Amino acid sequence: xxxxxxxxxxxxxxxxxxxxxxxxxxxxxxxxxxxxxxxxxxxxxxxxxxxxxxxxxxxxxxxxxxxxxxxxxxxxxxxxxxxxxxxxxxxxxxxxxxxxxxxxxxxxxxxxxxxxxxxxxxxxxxxxxxxxxxxxxxxxxxxxxxxxxxxxxxxxxxxxxxxxxxxxxxxxxxxxxxxxxxxxxxxxxxxxxxxxxxxxxxxxxxxxxxxxxxxxxxxxxxxxxxxxxxxxxxxxxxxxxxxxxxxxxxxxxxxxxxxxxxxx
Length: 264
Known about the structure:
By secondary structure, the chain is an alpha+beta fold.
């Protein structure tokens, strides 16, 4: 599955944004999943052209079974709602709805600190794990909706596509969406409707709506706010209970954070 979602701006990197699953990523991920699933189907077979878009050539004088056992044409259009007006049917058109910010904590989770663990072994074989802070973490969530409009020439095709699309997104590929940062909370199907296309032919429509939750996350490197780490090591007999610590033998040192990071 490919989504074709690229971030061209440098602001995410400049502001240490490591995740912001929203709009473009959501549409591309859902479209990619639907394309991947219907490419396995024998009847509503999805076929890509050389650029990865639905292959919709001129169907004049093309046999009625084109696309069943060949890649001459796709038998279903799956794409973004506003990419161009749909003129190939049946069609699944993905459209984003509204999104709103949902805090996971009042302070945007900013007191969360990400640590890295370093193991130190001395010449006597003693081991010690040091946890060093590496990032301050800020996080939040988005909640909103996505709709997949279904257009078909007949009622049966519309009904089949709405039920198949619903189960794909709610169950079959739910875990994959979750790994991509998109949690599908609820799936609903609108009432059926009927209209006419440009040639005044009947066109049957239905909409599958998804209530979703996604997240954003920033990880601020701690070296921008911390210059050095003080380390104090005590010596004694640790193999007895309680351990006996020598009160007159300690080592205090200061490690520059940049030097520590270079050694990792």
